[in-house]
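Please fill in the sequence for the structure shown.

STRUCTURE ENCODING:
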């Protein structure tokens, strides 16, 4: 355990020193906070948590603590980040109480009917002075789900494929299911500088929770070989795959999830 922690911290320190100019998705402070919370450096419950302080502080309220893990068992990523219009980048959306009560963003579900709402005086369900109740809930929540060694300790892909969770893919029950083009159903094998570390990428796994527009063209150029400067350090700083896989989806120290041929190495 101590060895894993020290290697992860060393990785973060080296990246801070060597790549100060990388990516807009995470600056040094943001990346440092991510590295400190990636298990085994941080508690499982905290991975994927977004804490929103700015507007709450102005209103004299405790910060909003949003747990991705409690929502993704009910809805796919597509619902919030496409249907409801939440940005993939923390802080970009800027939710207001007026928007909430008008049924936008969180208010689309948290209306007092589908899920708890402000109408019932349950503000402290999101505006948390402390997180002890949330931490206790995570233990119960994760107990029946497949385990993983990284992120929040849950193998979400296995939970989804095995039917342990059945998240809705749209808020409207009448919405027709989207179909993945046949040519994208087979896994892609992407070469790397080291032959044993080639990447296996599945459009099918990602499409089960996301939409093409979630990645293309803002994160990845849709043209073949159109994405340039794709490197591990760019990913770690929150670009490309790192837009999700350093914040919510399994983190990049779970190396063999993408590099299955890296024998004898389980990650930092």
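FILLED IN BY: designer on duty
SEQUENCE:
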């Amino acid at each position: 355990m101590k060895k894993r922690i020290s290697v992860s911290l060393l990785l973060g320190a080296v990246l801070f020193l060597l790549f100060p100019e990388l990516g807009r998705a995470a600056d040094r402070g943001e990346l440092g906070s991510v590295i400190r919370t990636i298990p085994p450096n941080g508690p499982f419950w905290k991975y994927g948590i977004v804490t929103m302080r700015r507007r709450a502080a102005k209103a004299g309220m405790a910060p909003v603590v949003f747990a991705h893990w409690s929502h993704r068992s009910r809805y796919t990523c597509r619902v919030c980040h496409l249907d409801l219009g939440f940005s993939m980048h923390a802080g970009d959306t800027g939710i207001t109480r007026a928007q909430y009560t008008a049924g936008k963003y969180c208010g689309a579900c948290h209306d007092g009917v589908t899920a708890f709402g402000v109408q019932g005086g349950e503000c402290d369900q999101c505006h948390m002075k402390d997180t002890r109740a949330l931490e206790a809930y995570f233990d119960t929540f994760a107990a029946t789900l497949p385990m993983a060694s990284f992120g929040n300790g849950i193998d979400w892909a296995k939970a989804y494929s095995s039917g342990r969770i059945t998240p809705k893919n749209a808020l409207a029950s009448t919405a027709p299911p989207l179909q993945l083009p046949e040519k994208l159903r087979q896994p892609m094998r992407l070469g790397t500088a080291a032959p044993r570390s080639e990447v296996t990428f599945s459009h099918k796994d990602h499409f089960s929770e996301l939409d093409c527009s979630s990645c293309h063209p803002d994160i990845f150029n849709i043209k073949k070989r159109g994405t340039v400067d794709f490197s591990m350090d760019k990913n770690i700083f929150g670009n490309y795959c790192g837009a999700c896989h350093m914040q919510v989806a399994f983190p990049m120290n779970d190396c063999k999830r993408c590099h299955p041929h890296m024998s004898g190495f389980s990650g930092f």
